[in-house]
Amino acid sequence: MGTAVPICWAGTLACSGGNDQFGWYIDFPGSSAGYNETTNEQLIYNPTIVSTAVVFNTTLPAIDSPLDCNPGIDTGYTYAIDAQTGGPIPNFFNDSSTTLNNGNVHTVAFESQATGTDSVVNTGGTGSSSSANAGKTYLVYQTISGTAGSQQIIEAN
Hints:
This protein is mainly β and about 160 residues long. It has one domain. The chain is about 0% helix and about 35% strand. The strands form 3 sheets. Strands 3-4-5-6 form a 4-stranded antiparallel beta sheet, with no helix packed on it. Strands 7-8-9 form a 3-stranded antiparallel beta sheet, with no helix packed on it.
């Protein structure tokens, strides 16, 4: 995942392999195993368009036994994929003040534990305000535990 691939448009000669597949898809990397069961990462929430990105949350269901006194907790990831190529958008989840994913500028997802569909919040202003957060954009979401979460994003132009 995370490799930009040109989209094959119907009737063009620019694509190899017979030009019989269109668009892009994602093979989610996540899975959980236990109690002789396996669950896979799933997209069950509506995506959001933010600038040139398709942004969505996935869930990775926990595997529990009815006899387990400490049930597991679902996990989840927030993805941002370039709508045109299916690849990463450099620096989308990173800015100078974050160490998300060890500063990897080609990050396509981070473990947010988010549920539902993200909301996009712009703090307004041009940065000339006394507020350090003026003119910034954030994804705001509810986590699996019910608390609020947010992540600053850098919108692609």
